[in-house]
Design a protein that fits this description.
The complex is a heterodimer. Among the domains of chain A are: about 340-490, no CATH class; about 540-580, no CATH class; about 635-775, Up-down Bundle (Four Helix Bundle (Hemerythrin (Met), subunit A)), CATH 1.20.120. Chain A is built from 24 helices and two strands. Chain A has helices at about 10-15, 20-50, 60-95, 105-125, 150-180, 190-225, 230-235, 235-270, 275-290, 305-315, 320-330, 340-365, 365-375, 375-405, 415-435, 450-480, 530-535, 540-555, 560-580, 600-630, 640-665, 670-700, 710-740, 750-775; strands spanning about 510-515, 520-525. The longest helix of chain A is centred in the first third of the chain and has 36 residues, at about 60-95. Chain A is globular, with a radius of gyration of 27 Å. Chain B is of the alpha+beta class. Chain B has two domains: about 5-40 and about 60-90, no CATH class; about 100-205, Cupredoxins -  blue copper proteins (Immunoglobulin-like). Chain B has three helices and ten strands, in the order ααββββββββββα. In chain B, strand 2 and strand 3 form a beta hairpin. The longest helix of chain B is centred in the N-terminal third of the chain and has 34 residues, at about 5-35. Chain B is elongated and about 90 Å long. In chain B, about 35% of the residues are buried.
Amino acid sequence: MTHNPLPPASSIKRWLMTTNHKDVGILYLVTSIYFLIIGGVLALLFRFQLTDPSLNFLNAQKFNQAVTMHGLVMILFVISPLGFAFANYVVPLQIGARDLAFPRLNALSYWLYLFGGILTIISFFQDSAIDAGWTMYAPLTTNQFSPYVGVNTGGLGLALLVASVTASTFNFVVTIFRSRAQGLTINKLPMFTFSILLTVLMMLYAFPSLLAGLVILASDRLLGTVYFTSPEGGALLWDHIFWFFGHPEVYIVLFPGLGAMAEVIQASTRKHLFGRTAVMVAMVIVAVLSFLVWGHHMFNTGISQDVRRVFTITTIAISIPFDAIILSYIYSLVKANIRINTPFLFVLGSIGVFIIGGITGVFLGSNVLDYILRGTYFVVAHFHYTMVGGGLLGLLAAIYYWYPKMTGRMFDEKLGRIHFVTSMIGYNLLYFPLFIAWETPRRVPIYQPDLLFWHQLATIGGLIFGLSFLIMFWNLLWSLRNGPPAGNNPWGAFTLEWATESPPPPHNFHGIPTFSSGKLEFISTNGAVHHHHETHLSPYPFGVSLGSFLTLAGLTVHSLMLPVGLLVLAISIVGWGREKFVAFEDPIGERWPFDGVDRVKLGWWTFIASEIALFGILISAYIYVRGASGSWPAPGTMLDVWHGAVNTFVLLTSSLTVVLALASAKAGRKGLTTAFLGSTIGLGLLFLFNKYNEWSELIHHGVTFGSSLPASTFFLTTGVHGAHVTAGLLALAYLVSRSIKGAYGKDNWESIEYFGYYWHFVDIVWVFLFPLFYLI
Amino acid sequence: MVSTSAEAVYGLFNLFLTLGTLVGVVVGSYMIYNLLRYRAREDKPAEGEVSLGELPPRQGFPIKLLLSLVLSSAIVISLIVGTFSTLEYLESPPRDSFEIRVTAFQWGWEFTYPNGVVVLGEGRIPANRPVKFIVTSRDVFHKFGVLELGIGIDAIPGKINSYWTQVRVPGTYEIRCFELCGTGHGVMIGKLVVMEPSEFERWYQSQGGVSK
């Protein structure tokens, strides 16, 4: 037996410091269930109000706050993270990896998620919480109509979540591309892992849009820019930005559940999924199309009819790949020997209700039906049938399916079936009446009296559905101690996670799993003890997250938290940088198409891809409001072209010095390396100095953040770019301090190369911004 | 049906509902049938079952799935065609429509008539005559909706949208806001009074207007 590098599960230190993917998975699981309870209680509160519109249990504002927080919590902090609980726990096991590519970063993702959720929920208890719906439509969310500090706090909480998701995104992309066992090519990936790969790829392009929207909203609220308050420019801007994120988000929420369902069906039928390749292709089509359907949320807004026709086609057409997925799941049952157990029952239930959710979704893809359906309970019923039905019920199946792997114990099957039956009764009593009472407007405590019965029925259903979860909690907790031992593979499944112990050892497998001969084998590491040197504990992910949380909370909750937060953050970042943290990549594995790209480099590339998306949205927002505005200052009237031209020259030169620094390091010329890195800092500072002068001149002449749309867009877009330059300079300062000590040379120049990617990217962004703002 | 728009929209809705229910029932029954038919009587390994660690073989596109998709594509295309033909009709108001401006605000409705008369909360329109609503908002997003008449369009600050209908049955219909617009969203209820044309003419003249 290898020695266990982790403290026992009973110690608090283990859970605060762990970086092991299985521990992080369990943390995600427990936390998302905690948020599920919060979101569920919020739902019961407003469902109770809805039993009788004349009740004054929640007043209109409290009602809207509860509805808003319920939506934000359930979508962003429950279903998606619950999927990531299994992504964390199962994906490395399924592909034969020992951990995620960047274990500390993964722990960081978890803690940022937890603290983001806490901050968002704190906003609920402040003077006035956000009450504009989870869609946060501007201008309702601007200062003029929502002058509440709660909106700022909630927004910052979401920003922490975006940071968490971004880190997860490139961690999973790198892991799935770089850490697969030999022979496990992309087309042979287990269905769950494949669904997670597509989920993170969607996240990679969807979440920057949410971030861009939040940045613009925050800038309008805090700095006084006028994106959303200028009707001529910003009337539909938030809708476009939000739904470009929001619709892919629906599939981001759904895919982990869909993937888990495929695994359960395979284990229950002991067959490969029917039409497996077709299902994978269909999922890819959904992932791509998900970015081309956002306009159906805007059918009533008066965008041009041609555009609406295109979105009608794409939105209704997305049902065809979904047909392929769901029908393949059903065809998988044909001529199989189906073992019916709790996870499988939840899959059946999930497919059953998802069929209803999917078909009603086609209604909403029709521009004409949207005239009456948008904003009614038809929409509410539909998306609960998809997100709770397909997403959450699919993940309940996942909980039961992987519970024996995670705990080593079986749950009680009879209680599991009781949970299934009660939850299905509660679920359908809750959501089906909402279709019948579809004429109720969304998000109102008051509705037509003839719908009273259906709303009361829904509330009873909600109560049953809510209580049914207690059966599961009891079952899972009781079985932790009392369940019969599960063994390695209780379901007779065939994916790799079932080929190791339950629960698996810290390094997952004894030996290195490989499929190179066409079937599973383990290459003995002959007791090679390198596992022992791997690090599984670090205090800094928790520290960085706590510091970020306190810093942000310091801005809107209590100012004393700000200095404490900054101190914790600074200590943790420095500690992180100095810590000797060892994470190995197995020497052999399937890495197509990134064989020649190492782990860190691939991570940087993925990170820069998300940055490209961020600037892409910001630049699109600029082009959009400029196009929607009647007039715009001619080049050279508001901005001085010379400032921009000089800065373009300065920044491009600084790219050159980074290239020279890298070349010097590779040549072993340490002094020269330091000199070129130093001159890059100089050029960066010159850029910022020139920008400072430009901005002060502008402000001196009355061109301020809020003076006009041309000014707002200029200050915000180049400001975000300037912030990226500043971040780059901080990183450069660190590189110079190391370079002076002679850290970089012939055999250690990668850090400079990675930094170079970032710096060149920031320069290229400027190459776009300069003509867009100064020349045309 | 009470109005032209209700007829068009609910007609299409019924097409979707019929086809949707049909598909749902067929697929659902097929799933349950297979479940009952192929349920394992006992948990014994059967022939051809996959064993641990076995990778999926190369697989083509199953014909059965292809045929199902052809079938669902046919349904989908008919739904798109149905939508487009209705859309054309719903968005082509007759030239002689009576135009009325609807301005939404936090939290109520304002109706402005061609003669400049402004009425708050309770709009009046003539029956049996095409009426075009020109809708905008003074502050945040709202949605002008009269479900019974098949009317619904966003009211957006800085943007003008329109929607037309011809109501056949005089009466009072409820206007509600269908886009969350703040605390008063739930009570942002108005009335649309549809009057016999002659009666409307009398009312409109009493307001100093001539509608034709």
